[in-house]
What we know:
Elements: E1 8-12, H1 16-27, E2 31-36, H2 43-55, E3 58-61, H3 65-73, E4 77-80, H4 89-97, H5 104-109, E5 116-120, H6 125-138, E6 143-147, H7 153-156, E7 163-167, H8 170-173, E8 184-187, H9 195-198, H10 201-209, E9 220-224, H11 228-235, E10 240-245, E11 254-257, E12 260-262, E13 268-271, H12 280-295, H13 300-309, E14 318-323, E15 326-330, H14 337-344, E16 350-355, E17 373-379, H15 383-389, E18 397-399, H16 403-413, E19 419-422, H17 435-451
Parallel strand pairs: 1-2, 1-4, 2-3, 5-7, 5-8, 6-7, 8-9, 9-10, 10-11, 15-19, 16-17, 16-19, 17-18
Antiparallel strand pairs: 11-12, 12-13, 14-15
Helix pairs in contact: 1-2, 3-4, 6-12, 6-13, 16-17
Amino acid sequence: MTDPAPARxxxxxxxxTGVAVAxxxxxxxxxxxxxxxxxxxxxxxxxxxxxxAAAGAALVERPGPTEVAxxxxxxxxxxxxxxxxxxxxxxxxxxxxxxxxRSEIDVAAERATVPIVAVTGTNGKTTVTxxxxxxxxxxxxxxxxxxxxxxxxxxxxxxxxxxVVAEVSSFQLEFTGQRFRPRxxxxxxVTPDHLDWHGSFERYAGAKARIAAFQSGDDLLVFDADxxxxxAIAAEAPARRVGVSARPDATGCFRVVGDELVFPDGAPLAxxxxxxxxLGFDRTNALAAAAAAFETGASSAGVVAALRDYATMPHxxxxxxxAGGVEWYDDSKATNPDATRRAISSFESVxxxxxxxxxxxxxxxxxxxTARLRGVVAFGEAGAEVAAAFxxxxxxxxxxxxxxxxVAAARTLARPGDVVLLSPACASFDAYTGYGxxxxxxxxxxxxxxxxxxxR
Length: 456
């Protein structure tokens, strides 16, 4: 027996997701109020205000605690936007008053009429989501990608499609319930991240586990069989399960054997050489995507075509250029230490650029790759923490004040055959609007100082 449809919904946060929830629910005749704690004097914000007004939703800016509590009590459902913390007054009030709190992806899932493939994990989510979509499309399956990858899921489930592939974050999963039951769930490695938001690794991992918590025996969970936390979550999952592994002896898993990607029974899936890029994590990402795609209608020919044609996404170990025998890579999307560690492990000799704003994470993880590091350039708010992570090692560390100085220092440290890798292990918000802006700044400096031979 399903709960009655809510007549009055309170949406927390006027970002893109909040606008999408308001627009879709208002089209169904639901009474929607959106609250925004920090309205901005920007064209983008004014556009979102206009969008919710056009949809017929109410907007309350900077509500006080009493007003928030009153709005919650007058609602049948509270829908927090991603990044709204469990400690938000509206969430606290809702739980005290017995008002349900459900994320946008949870609301979206109950509206879906086609299978949802959901992808989560600490690193690789966007890549695997987009690869699954590409494999399905190349197989003639009408697939669309949505969720944390860009477009809100609540909009995408209304598309004329055969499958919706959704990237989902721990922030979104925190507030999901039994309605979020993906036909296929993909759980990549779960390593420490966003501890400043979740409060502990246990809570972070618990949120990730919710991707599979309400699946049934007819559904499928694809999981990273090389990650102990993903393995532990899979062991408790109610769905059918299949692992993905870089280990050739991981029997029963999609895995890498020599120069072949193979099925769980050992049958060849595709040669590694067909892939447009073949770093270690590229291979396991490809296997996870293939496992999910095959379950939802992909053909072998479509999967191989997608592996051949798939283009590396920006700021994910993306080659900026090569000069003097040194390759320069932008991995600005690496905003946690495990992502940085994986990127370093893909190369033999690295000059690492790391720093930014730490998210409450243990940066010493990256010091485990010292055998591959020629040197480290530390920058940003967490520059001193990065330097401290290498205390007591033989790896030289230079701390600098800007990206310009970081590139200049890396140029001095690097030798022919080296890779200079921007892989910060930290968020970018100490100095940039996002990891993309940070990566673009790095690329500009590399072009100016290295590729064009100009030093400013």
